[in-house]
Design a protein that fits this description.
412 residues; alpha/beta; Rossmann fold; Dehydroquinate synthase-like, alpha domain; 4-stranded parallel sheet; two-stranded antiparallel ribbon; 18 helices; 12% strand; binds zinc ion
């Protein structure tokens, strides 16, 4: 399925990339014979995914939640305590991003083997080596295990819930804005960039976005291509050693939306759906830049920004984020024409296909779930939560972020 697994590549970025070797098995009816692949495994399922597979009960643990199982340390602890009593050799998640993250971190802590059976092409997390988990209400990205095997049953993916298909397309669309932000940051701040992790995915990305409607109509080959692209995107994170290839301003916006819900004990939308919202905002930011849309300079005072952070996350987390914000890179000289040149080719190649893909997955319906002013504040807050340079930092520094947000929400 992916030809560069297990290889070592001397890259033009100056680094040697070791690509993990993962055994990817893709066959129909795998869901019936998962137990054949492992010696004394512990399968982690939830109530939905349990019904998709045929696995021995004594090797199965069902995570339950009246709303939706979340990737929390509490759930990891449940698995770790099970492992004390019985000598399971291997942990296998049967689910999408959340169950995979719980299982991969549990395997890392308990030093067990880890494999996964994805039940939806909804995220790029399957091939990743880190697990974002809620630790006492705060989201932390923790080191975890790369899977030894990824077992894929096309029948199962084709039947995944529609919102998970939409989410998968959202998380894929994000790779375009993530790349734009990376190219921008490379140009403006000198941040290192790698082309290998773009060349391996750029054509597939376009094909998947063009096939958005086919994915939503459950065309098997379109869905398998989406899955393959997710696996490569996750590998790209592992290859580079951080999430830069897969995550820019759009993910920062999605993290704000997720954290806002989580710190209120609520269940957020699926990851890729929040990401679709962030991707649309980021696309519009690039559009306004490339089309010379003028915004009046209007600098939001630091005090007001701090107040937003406190409103969103409480005083303690707000303090941490403010520190991050104050240490963010600032660019000395900004020449808009030069900036436009640096991203023009990439922008022109992907703008229209990205826009139609987002509209086809119903991004407008996603925005309608939120108050416009809340969206504006979430965009502003998103520039303060992580030391990662994006187009929104450029706008912030150029004092047009507020103007952009007002223009953006007026069009919703
Ligand atoms: Zn993502
Ligand atoms: Zn490289």
């Amino acid at each position: 399925m992916i030809d560069f697994l297990g290889k070592t590549i001397e890259c033009r970025c100056g680094r040697i990339h070791s690509i993990p070797s993962i055994d990817i098995v893709c066959e129909n009816n795998l869901s019936e014979r998962l137990a054949d692949f492992f010696e004394n495994p512990l399968f982690i399922v939830d109530e939905n995914t349990f019904s998709l597979v045929n696995i021995p009960e004594e090797n199965t643990f069902i995570l339950k939640d009246p709303n939706r199982v979340m990737a929390t340390m509490e759930n990891v602890r449940k698995i770790l305590s099970l492992l004390k009593d019985k000598d399971y050799r291997h942990i296998v998640s049967i689910g999408s991003g959340t169950l995979t993250d719980i299982a991969r971190y549990s395997a890392f802590i308990s030093k067990k083997g880890f494999s996964c059976f994805p039940t939806a092409p909804s995220v790029d997390a399957y091939t990743s080596s880190v697990a974002p988990l809620l630790v006492e209400g705060v989201k932390k990205t923790l080191d975890a295990k790369i899977p030894e095997k990824i077992l894929i049953d096309p029948e199962v993916l084709v039947n995944s819930p529609t919102d998970l298909l939409r989410a998968g397309l959202g998380d894929i669309a994000a790779k375009v804005t993530a790349r734009l932000d990376w190219v921008l940051s490379n140009f403006l701040t000198g941040e290192d960039i790698c082309n290998f992790v773009w060349d391996d995915i750029k054509d597939l990305l376009k094909e998947v976005m063009k096939d958005t409607k086919k994915v939503l109509q459950r065309d098997q080959s379109a869905i398998m291509k989406l899955m393959k692209t997710q696996l490569i995107s996750g590998l790209n994170i592992t290859i580079v050693g951080n999430s830069r290839p897969a995550s820019g301003a759009e993910h920062l916006i999605s993290h704000v939306l997720e954290m806002y819900q989580e710190c209120r004990g609520k269940v957020p939308l699926f990851h890729g759906l929040q990401v679709a919202i962030g991707t649309y905002v980021t696309l519009k930011a690039y559009e306004s830049l490339m089309q010379d849309i003028q915004f009046a300079k209007d600098k939001l005072p630091l005090e007001e920004k701090k107040k937003l952070l406190v409103d969103f996350f409480g005083i303690q987390i707000a303090d941490e984020f403010q520190k991050i914000y104050l240490h963010k890179k600032r660019v000395e000289k900004i020449n808009i024409e030069d900036i436009k040149k640096s991203i023009e080719t990439l922008y022109l190649q992907y703008h229209s296909v990205l826009q139609s893909s987002l509209l086809d997955i119903g991004v407008e319906e996603l925005f309608s779930k939120y108050d416009k002013n809340f969206i504006k504040n979430a965009i502003i807050v998103s520039t303060m939560i992580r030391d990662r340079y994006t187009v929104l930092d450029l706008f912030d520094q150029y004092e047009i972020l507020n103007g952009f947000c007002n223009w953006f929400i007026e069009q919703l």
